[in-house]
Amino acid sequence: MCVFQEILGDKTIAILGAGKIGAAMIRSLRGVAGTIVATGRRDETLSKAEELGAVALKDNARAASMADIIIVSVKPYQLPVVVRDIMGHVNGKIVVSVVAGVRRDTIAKRLPGAIVFRAMPNINALIGMSTTAIVEGDYSPEHRLLVEAVFRSMGTIYWIPEEWIDTWTGLVGSGPAYLAEIIDGLVLGAVSMGLPRDVVYKAVLDTFKATAELLARNGKHPAVIRDEVTTPAGTTIHGLKVLESRGVKSALMDIVEASSRRGRELGKEIDAAVDNALSGG
Ligand SMILES: NC(=O)c1ccc[n+]([C@@H]2O[C@H](COP(=O)([O-])OP(=O)(O)OC[C@H]3O[C@@H](n4cnc5c(N)ncnc54)[C@H](OP(=O)(O)O)[C@@H]3O)[C@@H](O)[C@H]2O)c1
Fold first, then answer.
1. Measured from the CB, is residue 21 less than 6 Å from ligand 1?
2. Which CATH class for the 173-259 domain?
3. Of 50, 136, 219, 224, which residue is the least packed, with the fewest Cβ within 10 Å?
């Protein structure tokens, strides 16, 4: 029995909104949680959740009543309905929102008696390798342990202050999209030099995984690894010169900045709209 199973094996976890990220979380939690209950509105959503091993329901209130831990994973504009559905069914229970843009307090003030967490997993939860941020708060060790076990069962976790979450979303949430683009560009370069796409695609993925692992294992700064593969007058320095002349590093920095600024803007809009909808405005 794995450590997460020991912690969550007798717990029922409800995933309210079994869409893309909800389904990814079911995949990671099945076999770890005692029971998974999942909700959605369409029959298609429910049958997919059932195929993944969840008990599928349309009724959020019933799912929340059955659960020890409730994870809310609907789109922000769908959140007010779900919060209203579960009011009165969450006393003393853990409610984790993974909804982008909505502040923890916006939800917590509408669910008195619930222990409300905010987390931000990423799509790598599909393969049990999410990099998840959990917003810090004044929680009991027991509640922290349960929420950590939920997200550690689907990858790695980082406790962060809520002020960081927009930049985090721009970096780690959107990160898989940026890295996928970089991988695609490198593959196309090799294809333009006449190499077969299927072979080089796999080789580029292997190189990405291995470079990340090398950096993680030896703890050296990326610039040290760069210098170790850069022979005077060799191939690498010619490639690096192109990276420098096109301003690729500064473009990467700008990407994270632009994405987190947009995250902050959207967060303000979404939070105000959800707060307004929950106030009945
Ligand atoms: N996708 C990601 O990588 C990711 C990562 C981190 C956080 N998030 C956050 O997670 C949330 C969901 O994103 P997503 O990409 O998974 O969206 P999604 O695929 O559209 O999933 C949303 C799900 O919510 C269900 N739903 C809508 N209204 C509902 C209601 N009243 N009761 C029960 N279920 C309801 C929908 O079911 P029906 O289709 O049956 O209506 C749908 O399956 C968003 O807030 C997003 O910011 C997403």
1. yes
2. mainly alpha
3. 219
Cβ–ligand 1 distance for 120 under 6 Å, the answer yes
Atom of ligand 1 at shortest range from CA of 102: 45
For the Cβ of 124 lying below 6 angstroms from any atom of ligand 1, the answer is no
How remote is the CA of residue 279 from the centroid of ligand 1, in Å? Answer: 22
Placement of tokens 């006393």 in the chain: 91
pLDDT digits (tens, 9 = 90+) for 169-179: 889 999 999 99
Tell me whether strands 69-72 and 155-160 are parallel, antiparallel or unpaired: unpaired
Range(s) of the chain covered by CATH 1.10.3730.10: 173-259
Q: Is the CB of 18 within 6 Å of ligand 1?
A: yes
State which CATH number among 3.40.50.300, 3.40.50.720, 3.40.50.2300, 3.30.1220.10 fits the domain covering 3-165.
Answer: 3.40.50.720
How confident is the model at residue 268, as a pLDDT? Answer: 86
- Show the beta-strand stretches assigned E in the chain: 12-16, 35-39, 55-57, 69-72, 94-97, 115-120, 130-135, 155-160
How many angstroms does the Cα of residue 197 sit away from the middle of ligand 1? 34
Residues of the chain with CATH 3.40.50.720: 3-165
How many beta carbons lie within 10 A of that of residue 194, not counting itself?
6
**Below-50 pLDDT ranges, the chain:** none
Phi, psi for residue 12 in degrees, rounded to 5: -105, 125
pLDDT, position 281: 60
Q: What is the pLDDT of residues 269-279, one digit of tens each?
A: 888 888 888 88
Residue owning the nearest CA to atom 4 of ligand 1: 21
Whether the predicted model's global pTM rises above the 0.90 cut: yes
